[in-house]
Amino acid sequence: MSVADLAKPLMVMGLMSGTSVDGVDACLARIAMHDGHLQQEMIATYTQDIAPALRSRLLKAMSDPVMGLEALCALNVAVGELFAEAALGLLRTHHILAGEVDCIGSHGQTLFHWPPPPVQSDDETGTKRPLGGTLQIGEPSIIAEKTGIYTIADFRPRDMAAGGQGAPLVCYADRLLFQDEHYTRCIQNIGGIANVTVVPPRSTEQAESQPVMAFDTGPGNMLMDAAMMHFYGKPYDENGAVAATGTIHEALLVHLLGHPYLPLTPPKTTGREQFGEPFFKAQLAQFPGLEPADWLATLTEFTAQTIVDSYQRFIFPRYQVSEMILGGGGAYNAHLRQRLEHHLKAAGQVVSLKMHADFGIHDKYKEALAFAILAWAAFQRQPNNLPECTGASHPVIMGKHCF
Q: Do 162 and 187 have their domain in common?
C-alpha cells in the first residue's frame, strides 16, 4: 500500500471492554498517516453499561475452569449483541450514519489468557516451540450484521501464532500517539491490570539498545476493587479515600511482593488468571482479622510498588524516562498517585506525572481509540503488532475480518 493510501482519512470505531468488566467503551475517530506521523481526531464517544446479570455471568466464566460449551456459546452471543449495541448507541446518540464508518475494531471481552512460556519442549518432534492460548468473546459476526459495518476483531491469536504473548497490544497505538522527538515517555495504564509502554525518542526508536518496550507490571485496580466489593459493597475506592485512612500491613505486603510473576523478564502478560478473585480470597484466608481499610491501604501500596519496582528492574537501567503518562481508572486515584510519586522519588528518579488529557486524549476512551488504530492498520493490511513488545518472531497483521 502506498503512502498516499495511508494518508487518506478513515472513520474507524474502536470497541473496548477491559478486565474490570464495567462497560463497553466506543470511540469513533478519523485516522490517517502523514509523513510518518499519525493524525487522529476523536469524533464521538459512548459507553454501553454492562447489565449486572451479564457482568456476573462474565466474572463467573472467568473463574470457572469447567464452564459448559452451551453456556460459553450463549455468552459469546450475548457479548456480541452487547458490543453491537455499544456501536449502535454511539451512532444513534451522535446522529452518525453507519455508512459514514469505514470499519469497527472490537477487542471483545477476555475470558482467559494463557501466554506461552519462554520455551517449551515438544516431546513428539524434539523441537522447541512456544505454547499458549487466549479467548476473547463477543461474536464479531453479530456486530457486523447488526451494524452493517466491516468489523475486525479477535486480534490477539495472530500474534500468539507467531510466538508472541498476544499482549500488550495498545503499545502499537502508544508509539503512534505519544512518540516524541527528544523525550522517553512511559505510558502507564492502570486498569484492572497495570501495563506500561516505554516509547523512546523517534531518533532512537530503531536502536537495538532502546526499542519500544511494553509489558504488564502486575495488578492495577483488580485487587483493590475486589476488596472494596467484599468489604464495602462498592465497585472501587473513589479517589483512594478508604486506602488513605488505613495502615499498610507489612507482612501481607511482603507476601504479595513475593508473587512469582513480578521478577519475570519481559515480554510478559498477566490477568485475572493470576490476580483475580481466587487469588484475593486466598489472601483473605491467609491473613484473617485485618481491618478493611488496612486491606485497601496494603493493596494500593502493592500496586504502586509493583509499578515502580518494574521500572527499576526493567526500564530505568536502559532508558532515561522524562514523563509517566497515567491512564485507566487508577489514574484518578489520588492516593495511588501519591504513592507512585513517593516511590519514584525514593528511587532517585525525576519523572513528571501527566495524564492523557494533557495530550488532548480523553482518558476513558483511550483504549477504545487504541483498538480503532489497530483496526485502521489491519483494514489497510498493515502489520499492527510490535514483536519487540509481545515477543512474536515477526510483524503480523492482527485481527479477523467480518464483512
A: no
How many separate domains does the chain show?
A: 2
pLDDT digits (tens, 9 = 90+) for 321-331: 999 999 988 99
The distance from CA 402 to its chain's CA centroid, rounded to whole angstroms, is 23
Higher pLDDT, 311 or 209: 311
Query: Which amino acid makes up residue 257?
Result: L
HEC-encoded secondary structure of the chain: CCHHHHHCCEEEEEEECCCCCCEEEEEEEEEEEECCEEEEEEEEEEEEECCHHHHHHHHHHHHCCCCCHHHHHHHHHHHHHHHHHHHHHHHHHCCCCHHHCCEEEECCEEEEEECCCCCCECCCCCCECCCCEEEEECCHHHHHHHHCCCEEECCHHHHHHCCCCCCCCCHHHHHHHHCCCCCEEEEEEECCEEEEEEECCHHHCCCCCCCCEEEEEEECCHHHHHHHHHHHCCCCCHHHHHHHHCCCCHHHHHHHHCCCCCCCCCCCCCCHHHHCHHHHHHHHHHCCCCCHHHHHHHHHHHHHHHHHHHHHHHHCCCCCEEEEEEECHHHHCHHHHHHHHHHHHHCCCCCEEEEHHHHCCCHHHHHHHHHHHHHHHHHCCCCCCCHHHHCCCCCCCCCEEEC
Question: Within 13 Å, how many C-alpha atoms sit on residue 39's CB side?
Answer: 12
Q: At 59, is the pLDDT very low, low, confident or very high (cuts 50, 70, 90)?
A: confident
Same domain, 32 and 111: yes
**CA 265 vs CA 313, 387, 397: distances in Å:** 9, 15, 26
119 and 8: one domain? Answer: yes
Which domain range does residue 75 map to?
Answer: 3-168+364-402
pLDDT of amino acid 343: 97
Specify the pLDDT at position 121: 46
Question: Same domain, yes or no, for 374 and 315?
Answer: no
Strand order in the sheet with 151-153: 37-49, 23-34, 10-16, 103-106, 151-153, 400-402
pTM comes to 0.89
Kindly report the CATH number assigned to the domain that includes residue 103.
3.30.420.40
Residue 16's nearest CA partner among 362, 391, 402, 318 is 362
134 and 199 within one domain: no
